[in-house]
Please model this.
Amino acid sequence: MTNDITDHQQYLDLLAQIDRLFDDYETNKRQIDQLVPLVDKYEENASYFASFNQSLADVSNIQALLRVLMDQHGLGIDDFQNELRGPGDVTAILNGQLTPTPEQLFALSNRFGFEIHSVISSEL
Model:
């Protein structure tokens, strides 16, 4: 398949096909690499995803990072006492009202094992 996705059912069918191809990734890598850009393009341009894409555009990398960390580790706003100054800072970061200091980002990176340059490069 080299054409653009033209409707949502075709999109869903392509996702199912890619999922099956991932069962033997090494054998199917080339085909997966050809199909994934079609999915990406559809997700970026389809009216079906317009409100979702707009909501993502309004979220900074740091907000997204904190939300993912909370979700993946089952954490609440009270679980960052050592990295952030407290629940008020966590809430303010999640709401886009506060940007963490470099020291706070470094503390988060130490706790969760990621490099901060990839998170803050477009933010600070």
